[in-house]
Amino acid sequence: MTKIRGIHHVTAISGAPQPNVDFFNGVLGQKLVKKTVNFDDPGTYHLYYGDAAGNPGTILTFFPFADAGRGKAGPGMASAYAYAIPTADFDRITDDMAVHGLTTAGAGLRFGERVVTLRDPDGAPVELIESADASDTHGFHSVTLWERDPERTLRLLTDVFGYRHLGTESEGTGERHRLVAEGSERGRFLDVIQVPGALPGRQGAGTIHHIAFRTKDDAEQAEWMDRLASAGHRTTDVKDRQYFNAIYFREPGGVLFEIATDPPGFAIDEPAESLGRSLKLPQQYEPMRARIERVLPPLRVPA
Ligand code: ZN
Predict the structure, then answer these.
(1) Global pTM?
(2) Helix or strand or coil: residue 62?
(3) What is the share, in percent, of the chain residues with pLDDT greater than 90?
(4) 70 CA distance to ligand 1 centroid (A)?
(5) Structural domain spans, the chain
(6) 11 CA distance to ligand 1 middle (Å)
(7) How far apart are the CA of 37 and the centre of ligand 1, in A?
(8) Buried b vs exposed e over 14-37: b needs ≥16 C-beta within 10 Å?
(9) What's the pLDDT at 105?
(10) Type and span of the H or E element at 177
(11) Distance 84 CA to ligand 1 centre (A)
(12) What radius of gyration do the chain's Cα atoms show?
């Protein structure tokens, strides 16, 4: 039976785009692999960060809204994502972040691995987890889902998606479950936390909009649509996102899930060696390019 191959990308909402680029590209060293627009709102950017090639499992995307109000994570939302940092780089990077006042506290321990939490320009957590398997600083370690009642979500992840439940740890007054996907080195962990009495969150700058899981190709994605339908989860039709095809559904706890194809990838509309340098528009917006370029704020990309 086909299993989910881990995280494809994480999509979040931010405030103004320049501080976002300065932090994720300038400070964290993630490459801006695609500069495009929100396909549902072409007057705003959609920014994609990742490793040099924009491989699945490294992609963090933002919808920057200059006047987005500050959001707040809560049950029914993905509350954090974590980068896997090689052991050899962990102290240097986290010390450097601490010197620049970007960390919230010293290193904690989660399932035996050190974790340090940074705050991005919108106050959102960016977790760095020391990982013996990581070969660079671009891949995700895990994403955390915050659930009021995790049972049905855990069942979907294990029984339908094929994740394996690795263990449970207590955390504060709640608990954290850890799951692992097979066959993917990056983004293979998924955590589910439950915190008693937590207030509902609200979508806005500094919150995660959805998380996307990897699938190999269109045929496997169609299989997922059928499997999810038989399990009682109705997905959207396939949406052409230019760099992957996507289907969406809400998992039982309320988090928006996407299943995205690995192909065609980010080199479909510009050379692999100059990813992210120029504004790319899907075909339907090319005729409006001049107008769109006038509306979008200019962006300086440091590296
Ligand atoms: Zn997505």
Answers:
(1) 0.97
(2) strand
(3) 93
(4) 21
(5) 7-295
(6) 6
(7) 13
(8) bbbbbebbebbbebbebbbbbbbb
(9) 86
(10) strand 174-180
(11) 21
(12) 18
Judge residue 5's burial from the number of C-beta atoms within 10 Å of its C-beta, 0-12 exposed, 13-18 middle, 19 or more buried: buried
Q: Among 3.30.2130.30, 3.10.180.10, 3.20.20.70, 3.60.130.10, name the CATH number for the domain at 7-295.
A: 3.10.180.10
Candidates 41, 39, 54, 42; CA nearest to 8 is 54
Cis peptide before 121 (omega within 30 of 0): no
78/68 Cα distance (integer angstroms):
18
Distance 21 CA to ligand 1 centre (A): 19
Confidence band of 303 (pLDDT split at 50, 70, 90): low
Question: Which residues fall within 8 angstroms of residue 47, CB to CB, at 6 or more apart?
Answer: 17, 20, 21, 32, 34, 35, 61, 62, 64
Q: For residue 258, how far is its CA from the centre of ligand 1 (angstroms)?
A: 6
Q: Cα(8) to centroid of ligand 1, in Å?
A: 8
Q: 283 C-alpha to center of ligand 1: Å?
A: 19
The confidence band for 42, taking pLDDT boundaries of 50, 70 and 90, is very high
Encode 144-177: b = buried (16+ Cβ within 10 Å), e = exposed: bbbbeebeebbebbeebbbbeeeeeeeeeeeebb
CA of 282 to the centre of ligand 1 (A): 16
Q: Is 266 helix (H, G, I), strand (E, B) or coil?
A: helix
